[in-house]
Design a protein that fits this description.
The structure is a homotrimer of 317-residue chains. With 317 residues, chain A is of the alpha/beta class. Helix content of chain A is 48%, strand content 15%. In chain A, a hairpin with a 4-residue loop joins strand 2 and strand 3. The N terminus of chain A is likely disordered. The interface between A and B is medium-sized, with 28 and 27 residues.
Chain lengths: 317, 317, 317
């Protein structure tokens, strides 16, 4: 295990956790996003993007392209510019997933971004800043809910990581069954919370430990490392790195492989491997919410977030 | 970690988990086995196979070749054609192991197959099909017993994997202290239960996690992967891959290395590392038996097993 | 994972766990050490070794070279000839660490040896031989205390392993946040307790498992493996191997990297990752002491230690 390499990228990542989008960064992008979205008429839920004859559905921020013949659907995050996980996006993701889980035509879902370049910038700082405790609690419960849904989903979840994937974006990928990363040095992935002065909660850490082992996780979490593709593969935070234009097709062939396994046995096996980790959160879900609320409500944290957000907004201007 | 490679072999393995023996496969082989065994006069327990002057002992299905000068014995599975783990074989393995453990001349055992080409095809489906609940319970208790004995044995157990080793055969290997696999692409190893539509019990999974880590185990178990030698080594499910004709000699030199360690300290250390995993089963042994009995008694499972067995028997004809 | 390589070194290590210092070995060196120390006037605590203008402090056996401008200090073990962890050295290490932790000028410490060639020979057998149970209990409590302090320290601890590091020396390194080993084949590192006929306690084992995973730890602990640099890196027991003359400078650049991370978030994250392991000892600290006392007080153990020590002392003569 040569763990040293990942460390090199940390400094760059401090202010721009998604490592892209010069001029338009982070939260500021989130604001811009609403406009970009409404100005993109070709991207309404019912419009193109699915295969021939496929009828897309979904919700404003989650495009679902069903492929019942293949027993699967593609679920695209569509909250430009950076797919930050707002309360609305979280809720729509859970609802879309639930719909697919309840429809027996689907045994698998490919999760990807509708805006190649950024998979997801992670949790939405706007939901954590200048709001009241009730809002923080509601938001955190939604974050927990998405993780629990993904991590224990009986569906095969393949993550086609077609862009940068810091913090909550990385958690989303880690909660799937298989991760394919586009080979672009700008597409870094990792739980870089410490770089923002915050702490990944224990169940983020558990999910990372389950994926890359205790030592690599300890180092990555303390340093807030974002791994570029080659290092991401080496440390095991993704399973495969492929050229950018092959991410979706690779995801489809991997999916076919997973769907060839008898489904019921595979689902029970997945549950066997993941239940204990999910139970750790379920047993202290309310306490975890209270922790988050009291942490995020601190004056010092609110102040840092505020400064950080202002910096991003100035950058935009 | 490049985990993708192992996946390539899964499809092939679905119907022939031991990946060999064209025409004579699986359970059908198990029936043929009794005849083959009785037709092989040179293979009676007291006959050849041991070193010069070594007196072999053992039982009908387990040949033991003692080498007291080296402080060890070789234990050969001899239930042709595929060493399926029948109730009788399980019982004889436990008894042979117990005898060696109680004889202070022996500090180590090399476990291998008397029929190179197949190490063990795993649990014997005939014990799980068309019998009554009491039989299923007795059988499962014997499977547990063998694992507990092997996993916590104070003897050094080196596994000379000289053939295919799916499912229960892989568990047997994983329960040893060191695994040497013959370098033959047909000799795949893995817990491929999901491919048969069944689920490896939690203690199979625990044993795999302890060997290759959580992530690799999760993927291998969900997909029911059988790893050919190079991939088996890379993922860590075996410790060494050597040319087929060097498996036994390598096992002997590795054994010498292990036996050079002060025995009492080594035994206590092994126990320290494995007791918690064994205790998980010991604490719920009866519940685990009940689980197995009720799972295997289901009409749907019995029907699949029946179809599967018939298919194998037709192949034989 | 190719785990076989490390095994090659075990035999050599049996009598000389630090693999160096021909003629002057082990405990005998420990006796010689007191004289060497008092005969080395240039090595008093206040004398050289620090950077320009740095004022060294510390205690007889622990030299502390503060570098407040860099926010860190270098802590050098100085109990020649082999830095065996006597009660006095353990106590001084804890006190030095405590001082640095309570001084806000310091966020990190580089731990290294003042005698390149040997990092630390580990626990001091003289503290475990021919003393009364009360002494054994006091000694073991001090060993626990050092580990707990190091493992949970809010400081960034970088270990510059500039010499052999068997047993307790390895534990010391494993308790840090990052390990850099000098590339010298004589500088082996590992928990080789079984080779001396003793058993690493569970929290030594837990610390190793957290670093290199369950399987590699199980094998290394059973065999008492000491890994030379290339194998140490491969198995993950160290994070980096560099030429001998670059160990200290590399430690400084790695430290700068770690200190660039927002400190409070990093500390909370470290605690999140390590608390459960430390708690396992805290919950049974007295029982662990009693275990040690009754084990080490056994006639058979005392006899082996005595024989071992006499052998080393004769070697000296």
């Amino acid at each position: 295990m040569a763990l040293a390499a990942g460390a090199r990228v940390q400094a760059r990542a401090l202010l721009r956790p998604w490592g892209r989008a010069p001029g338009l960064t982070g939260l500021a992008l989130w604001f811009a996003g609403s406009r970009v979205l409404s100005a993109a008429p070709g991207r309404t839920p019912a419009a193109g993007g699915g295969g021939p004859g496929a009828r897309c559905f979904g919700s404003p921020r989650v495009l679902v392209e069903p492929d019942p013949a293949a027993g699967m659907a593609v679920m695209k995050l569509r909250k430009p510019p950076v797919n930050s996980l707002s309360l609305e996006l979280l809720t729509e993701l859970v609802i879309s997933l639930e719909k697919l889980e309840n429809d027996k035509s689907f045994q698998g879902v490919i999760i990807t971004s509708d805006s190649p370049g950024i998979f997801s910038a992670g949790l939405d700082l706007m939901e954590m800043c200048g709001r009241d405790p009730a809002h923080y609690a509601e938001y955190w419960k939604a974050v927990q809910e998405l993780w629990l849904r993904l991590y224990l989903s009986h569906l095969v979840l393949i993550c086609a990581v077609n862009g940068a994937s810091p913090a909550g974006g990385c958690l989303l990928a880690l909660s799937c069954d298989y991760r394919i990363l586009a080979d672009n040095p700008k597409y870094t992935i990792g739980l870089n919370e410490t770089q923002l002065g915050i702490v990944a909660p224990f169940w983020f850490a558990d999910t990372l430990v389950n994926t890359i082992g205790h030592r690599a996780a300890e180092r990555a979490l303390q340093l807030g490392l974002l791994f570029p593709p080659a290092e991401a593969l080496q440390v095991g935070i993704v399973d495969q790195v492929v050229p950018e234009d092959q991410v979706q097709s690779t995801a489809r062939s991997v999916m076919a492989q997973w769907l060839a396994v008898p489904g019921h046995a595979r689902q029970l096996t997945k549950n066997l491997m993941r239940k204990a980790t999910a139970d750790r959160l379920l047993k202290q879900r309310d306490a975890d919410i209270q922790n988050f609320v009291s942490f995020i409500s601190r004056d010092s944290i609110q102040k840092s977030l505020h400064v950080y957000i202002e910096k991003l907004q100035k950058k935009k201007v």
